[in-house]
Amino acid sequence: MKTTNLSKYGPWALITGASSGIGRELARQVAEHGLHIVAVARRQSRLDELSSELKKQYQVKVRTVQADLREPDAIRTITTATEDLEIGLAILNAGAEMTGAFVQGDEQAHLQLAQLNAVAPMHLAHLYGRQMAGRGRGGIMFVSSLFAYQGVPYVAHYAATKAYLLSLGEALHVELKPFGVDVLVLSPGLTTTEMTANMPVDFSKLPMIPQMPEQVARVGLRALGKKATVVSGIMNKMMAWENRLLPRAAPVSLLGFLLGRALKDGARPVGRVKACHLTR
């Protein structure tokens, strides 16, 4: 399957989480198609490196935006930085994970995870999607996860936020198609990135074959404009599809067993958790 002609979305593409991993590779491959890049990430030094690389190798314009999407004010930072640009392609890739027992995680960290993984991409899709629909053309890519296809114990909240993106993107694929806007949800499996390297999980104990970011990015860009969803990797596709054939509880229990066995000592649930009381 050939890559979609990305020039139809131009002239500018916005990519969140562009400083490393899948986001950085998506920026490279989009720039290779001649689109100018708005690169959004937390680390300015990484953004500067990426900007120099893209300008030199692909002769495109690059605008960097330092923003932490865990903070609600980041949306205003991004929209202000792009108000003079026509964003024709929005790739909403920024995300993070939390590994371990849900109730032992810090409450504020859970709230920030929801903001980063779910609220921020929804907000940006609404803002730029409205502009695209008004112009009659555009593209939006949500980067979700293979874990979006079922509940996953020990990464419960991460998987839930990614399931939100999967559901939202599937619906917007239908809603926005009549307005000339292509929407795709890309769901990678295990990928060799900083995020997975820092997870307290021994992935050798899981039946997962890691992919490189360039492979994942290529799969997503090839599917954009052709599909509503795509899972990168044959083994990953099989894992996603088996959920349609098995009772819903089966893969959840299986993944709970496998991940529980693969957790490193620091992430294993220990003792009892002190009760907390919610107030209005």
CATH-level-4 superfamily name: NAD(P)-binding Rossmann-like Domain
Order of helices and strands: EHEHEHEHEHEHHEHH
The helix content is 40-55%
CATH topology: Rossmann fold
Indicate the structural class.
alpha/beta
Shape: globular
Profile the largest sheet: 7 strands, parallel
Within the largest sheet, what's the order of strands?
3-2-1-4-5-6-7
Tally of DSSP helical segments: 9
**What integer is the average pLDDT?**
90
Question: Domains counted in the coordinates: how many?
Answer: 1
Organism: Nitrospira defluvii
Keywords: Oxidoreductase
InterPro entries: NAD(P)-bd_dom_sf (IPR036291), Sc_DH/Rdtase_CS (IPR020904), SDR_fam (IPR002347), VLCFA-Steroid_DH (IPR051019)
GO molecular function: oxidoreductase activity
Provide a quick synopsis of the model.
The protein has 280 residues and is α/β, with parallel strands linked by helices. It contains 9 helices and 7 strands. A 7-stranded parallel sheet has the order 3-2-1-4-5-6-7, sandwiched between helices.
